[in-house]
Structures are given as structure tokens and as C-alpha cells.
Amino acid sequence: MELLERRRALIEERLVEVVDDLEPDALRAEVEHTALAGGKRVRPMVTVLACETVGGTAEDAVDFGVGIELVHAASLVVDDIIDRSELRRGTTSAWAEFGYGPAIVSSDGLLGEAFALFSSDPDATRVVAEAMVELGIGEATELSAEPETEAEYMTLARRKTGALFRAAAELGAIAAGSDAVTVEALGEYAERVGVAFQIRDDVLDAIADPDELGKPTGHDAALERPSVVQVTDLTPDEANARARAESDRAIEALDRVEVADPTARNYLVELAEFVVEREQ
Questions:
Q1: A single Gene Ontology molecular function, please (predicted)?
Q2: pLDDT of residue 267
């Protein structure tokens, strides 16, 4: 666990460095509010751990990890505007704190800094661009053409959440200089973790205490947004079982990877298990 905390500290330190370099001051304050407000840093941890699993180092992957966290943060700013959500990660959302215009500008700033970090490697830039296309399709689908079946919901979850998870792991593999087969296997692992994460997130939105969750609950039902408990007839327990199945298949994908660091690989396994057990 101490090793994991050191990796997380490395990500946090680099994230602060990137944000501190932003100008002007108003933009820096807005980005700080969003990017440094907390969060589990799951995606950048996936990047670092994937890199180490296949023979790279945390230092090799940290810039890509910070970049994917900034992309994720930018997507949350937009999500909160769409949802009119005033709370994010236990504090005010960007639009509630600064207004709609500054929030949109902060989202642009986050994406700009992210792609500056990816620009050293064309493959990294391509992977993230593809993920953002998938995310955009997912968001548009959520707003205009709601899924009506479990299969359609799973496709939405893959695009809405799984795509950025996939990119996070693929970035780690790219940072380690991995071949295409390894990049794909780690990508599948992370995509399935992301889908499991989204299913569990939907369940928590339906049943969790908002104070414990750190954001409002019941939003999916109130906004008629497609969640696993709204689109399907699954009970929360049955939905959690679907999440567990995705988690299990994610771990199976790791079996196709030639492991250089078993400790890092074990952390990826623990993450796949954590996302379906979390209470926040």
C-alpha cells in the first residue's frame, strides 16, 4: 500500500505542477478548483500501473496519467453543466462556483494542457482522440437516443466511461514501449473495469447517501438519464452482479499480458475488484 501511495503522490505532484503553470490567474484558479478538488485518481493510476506491469516505470507514465486525469476532469465540468449539478467531489461544481462561461473555458483549458502532455507521442494523441470521439458519441446518445435494452446500455457505458479507462491503460502500455497486442489486452482490461465502474456508479446513484457519496444522488431518475436501474429490469443486486462479471472478464484480459512487475499487476487486479465494491 505504501508503494501505491507513492505512485499517487507522484501523480498529485505532477498535476499541481501542470496547473500551477497556467495563465492567466483566473484560468488557473478555475482549473485548480476542478482538477485539484480531490478524486480517486483512478485513471492516472491505471496508466502508471499498466506501464509498470509491462516493464516501464511510474516516471515514464506520469505525464500521460496526468493528461488523462485532465481529460476526465474536463468531461466532468461539462457533465455538471448538462445535469445542473451543483456538487462535485464534495465541493461546488465549476459552473456553480464560477458561472457557465468560466466553467466552459476551464474545460477548454484542461483539455489544452492534457494534449500538451500527450503531444510527445503521436500514438498517445491518437489513443486519447479516439477515446474522446467515443465519449462524445456516448454523451450525445445519453441525451438524445436513450438505450432501451441492457445491450444498448452496455454499449453506452463502454463509450461513456469505458473509453477513457481504455485510453488510460493503453497510454501506460505506450509509455512502456509495448507492442500492439499488449496495448490491446491492457485496453480491454481497463474498458471492462470502466463499464463495471459505470454500472456500480448507477447503482450508487439510486441507493447511496449523497453525503457519503460526495455528490447528489437520484439524478439519473430525476433527469430521466439512462442508468442500469432505469433502462433494465435489474435490481441493484443483479446490476452489481453484472458489474462483477465485467470485473472478472477484465482480470481475464490481464492474463494475456506478459508481466514484468507482478506487484503492479496485482494492483490492477485489486482495482478491478474495488470498482464493484466501492461505496463512493
A1: prenyltransferase activity
A2: 95
- CA 177 – CA 173 distance, rounded (Å): 6
The model's pLDDT over 259-275, given as tens digits with 9 standing for 90+, comes to 999 999 999 999 999 99
Which amino acid makes up residue 129? A
CA torsion angle 62 68 70 73 (round to 10): -130
Q: Domain locations in the chain?
A: 2-274
Positions of E strands within the chain: 87-88, 91-92
Give the domain 2-274 fold. Farnesyl Diphosphate Synthase (1.10.600)
Residue with cell 480491454: 188
Please answer whether residues 48 and 65 qualify as being in contact, where contact means their C-beta atoms are separated by less than 8 angstroms.
yes
Q: CA dihedral defined by 139, 127, 269, 156, rounded to 10 degrees?
A: 20
